Amino acid sequence: MEPEILKSGDDSGNKMVLKYTFPDGVVIHAIGVPQAWETPLGPTWSYVIEGDHLTLVDTGCNGTVQHLEEGLKVVGYPLSAVDRIVITHGHLDHDGNCLEVVNRSGAELWAHEVYSELLGINRWEMEMEWRQQTKGFPKAEEEEFIKRIYDHHRMSTQLNVNNAIQDGMVADGLTFHYTPGHSPDEICIQFEKILFSGDHILPLITPHPSVSLSYEKFQDILPEEYRTENKYYGLKVFFQSLKKVEGLGDDITVLPAHRAVHRGKFNPIGLDRVGELLEHHRDRCYRLLELVKDEPINMNDITHNLFAGNRLDEVNFYLAYSEVISHIEFLEECGDVEMVGEKNRLVKSHGTDKFSAAMDRM
User: Fold this and answer.
1) What per-residue string of b and e applies to 163-187 under the rule 16 or more CB within 10 Å gives b?
2) What CATH number does the domain containing 61 carry?
3) Where in the sequence is the domain holding 258, given as residue range(s)?
4) Model confidence pLDDT, tens digit, residues 230-244
5) Is it the case that residue 249 has pLDDT exceeding 90?
């Protein structure tokens, strides 16, 4: 579906305002809220649902609220008219503007119950601590990146969730599907035949899976019923969540948080995109097995080999390294590799590819 352009932006969609009109008469507006830093990712798409309550799905990155406000004015509303914010997950490019919108509008904040429990916790600092200790993860030193992270954490400590969402909850025509894997608090929101997918399903790119080992570090912080088994972090969890939403129906239109527009083209997707994402990760697992088939290799070298040709500055290397960890964890769980050597930091192949059948059985 190609939307109507109410306000033009650049060829990535930054500052663009769109109007989606569906065959059943449902109208959804989309605001391309730019990131607060220069990035090829493009904007975070904040979606406007009109009805008894004016609802925003995601608010964009902290420091960009003026762009959200300008987009709302194009739709016909001041920022103060927002009644409800629904957050797909607690990454700064999705909930960064929440505090200012709440303070200026009095809007209710709706998010998954795991998001509610993690508010006030510096997730990034906890992640970095264990990754450096157990996986030899490189220490982040880029000042602007670190400042954004800490600004986001400071604002998060001042938020309160008014309505903690659980899987399958239905309210005001919205159905909430819990879809962890990219983030332990991620939800997809279904409205009629529309699925607001956050980062769970994206056109052109795939979200970075979380890392299974994170569960051990956050286990005691999660709600009590989440503390017995890891169903919330890692590539396997991401696969399970993808297959969960894949079954919602062939007639669903997916409205993603990123890359709805890229290089001047619209990128409409449906749930058939799930199969493409799964095959992307299957291929990545095969490529990893190829890299380690002859001798054990450390994570750092695997990352550089796997992403050869990519510009791996500090932030991108952080993301690439995380991607490698998540895939190695899954291969290890399936029995295709094991960690050996000093501090178990070398990946050794078993010469098998049992992971592929494991994916199909999910």
Assistant:
1) ebbeeebeeeebebbbbbbbbbbbb
2) 3.60.15.10
3) 4-271
4) 999 999 999 999 999
5) no
